[in-house]
Amino acid sequence: MIKKIISLKYNMEFLKYFTNTSWLFLEKALRITVSLFIGVWIARYLGPDQFGLFSYAGSFVGLFTVIATLGLDSIVVREFLKHRIKEDDLIGTTFWLKFIGSILVLLMLTVAINFTSNDKYTNILVFILASGTILQSFNVIDFYFQSKVLSKYVVFSNIVTLIISSFIKIILILNEAPLIAFAWVVLLDTIILSVGLVYFYIKQNSKLFKFNFNIKVAKLLLKDSWPLIFSGMIITLYMKIDQVMIKEMLDTEAVGYYAAAVKITEAWYFIPMIILSSIFPKLLELKEQNYEKYLKKMKNIYALFTWLSLFISIFIVLLSEFIIEFLFGKSFIFASQILDVYILVSIFIIPSVLIGKMLLIENKQKYGLYSVIIGSILNIILNYIFIKNYGVLGAAYATVTARLVSFFIIGIFIKEMRFSLELLYYSLALPYYLVTKRIKLAK
After folding, report:
1. Around Cβ 305, how many Cβ atoms within 10 Å?
2. Which residues contact 103 (CB under 8 A, 6 or more apart)?
3. Cα–Cα distance for residue pair 142/357, rounded to 1 Å
């Protein structure tokens, strides 16, 4: 076993992916640590009501900003790897498609705010946060670096952005700045990151960023991405609608408590996301070369994610009051009750990300769309019922229940999605299999 581990240092392919994953892990670990620290400080400074308003504005914008991506993110990485399209055409076309998507977002927000109870100040916050979607068109450079397993350049850009942003936020807190100032910093983050990505692209390729638009390439990309567009919209609706409904049915203070619980729950999501984004190119290759090995790899990753989610959920439930009071202060202590329930959603969310990748690799995205449609409908209905009867705690019950029920409905009634139940069974049975195997070997 030790010899195998030592031999890996001579495996160039392993070193390539290990280095790339290390860069991603370093950046995400730094980002989550600094962002959690700064985010908690901001929450303490603003208090439940103002923090709730800020979180609501972000969630409301989030309901629409997914349109700006047009479901292209993973599709573009795949196309970079397949080399079917010229890189300049792929980069330029993706950029313009995302730019058009961001303009659509702003237009839709202009209409949507008329159907809310928002005041003028809240709407200003919404449009400041939404403006950053235009600059996110430059994220196509991120996809380019992902396909080349050169994520270190994206890491450099993110770290510089994080340092500048954190420094400014600390100054704002110390000078008792108003809430709107923190919204402007979010927009500034997007500007700095976009500049960094363009800089490293030019440095790596020794050429300027080209803005080619190829209508044939656009049609090809949109043909494959349309299920992901709707899927992304519905997933975002799934994830963000609860905070919007809490604000409309209760108040911004309740949103603040709920947002604190969500922030803690999502704090560790970067770990599985890093693993998947780094090994995604390898999974694509493995699927073409050896389908049996590909399936085995997927089963093992799913089991890892399932048990990791379970153990972290139990740990957080046991320490929820301490975590909330230590990080957010006594004014947020009610959020610990929400956290006890909401943390359970991670048991379904993290493994489902892998299922989404499998559907993408096998070009079966539409079945993922069916799954999120059912889950979103359930979530909205249950949120309305539970919030009405149980207040803000009901939103947590609704989200977890919707995830659980939709998972089994999809697995049972859609033939192409039954593999998700097989993955779950494999994950739950794996400890028993490993223990019994060890007992047999001991005998």
Report:
1. 24
2. 134
3. 18
Written as one letter, the residue type at 220 is L
pLDDT tens track for 332-357 = 999 999 999 999 888 877 777 777 77
Q: What are phi and psi of 119, to 5 degrees?
A: -90, 180
Per the CB < 8 A criterion, the answer to whether 354 and 298 are in contact is: yes
Count CB neighbours of 195 within 10 A.
Answer: 15
Q: Which two tokens stand for residue 211?
A: 């803005």
Structure tokens that stand for 420 in this block: 């998700």
Reference 263, options 280, 281, 245, 243; nearest CA is 243
Predicted model pTM: 0.71
Cα three-residue angle 322-323-324, rounded to 5 degrees? 95
**CA–CA dist 246, 384 (Å, integer):** 9
- R_g of the chain computed on alpha carbons: 22
Domain locations along the chain: 15-442
Joined tokens for residue 300: 């093992």
Please tell me the distance from the alpha carbon of residue 263 to that of residue 39, in angstroms, as a whole number. Answer: 9
What is the Cα–Cα distance from 32 to 17, expressed in whole angstroms?
A: 22
User: How far is the C-alpha of 348 from the C-alpha of 379, rounded, in Å?
Assistant: 14
Cβ atoms 147, 90 nearer than 8 A: no
| Torsion angle (degrees, nearest 10) of CA 85, 89, 95, 100 | -100
How far apart CA 210 and CA 374 sit, in angstroms, is 41
- Do residues 114 and 120 touch, judged by C-beta distance below 8 A? no
* Residues 259 and 394: beta-carbon distance below 8 Å: no
Q: How confident is the model at residue 421 (pLDDT cuts 50, 70, 90)?
A: confident
Maximal C-alpha separation, the chain: 74
Using the 8-state DSSP alphabet, how is residue 344 labeled? G
Output DSSP code: residue 161. Answer: H
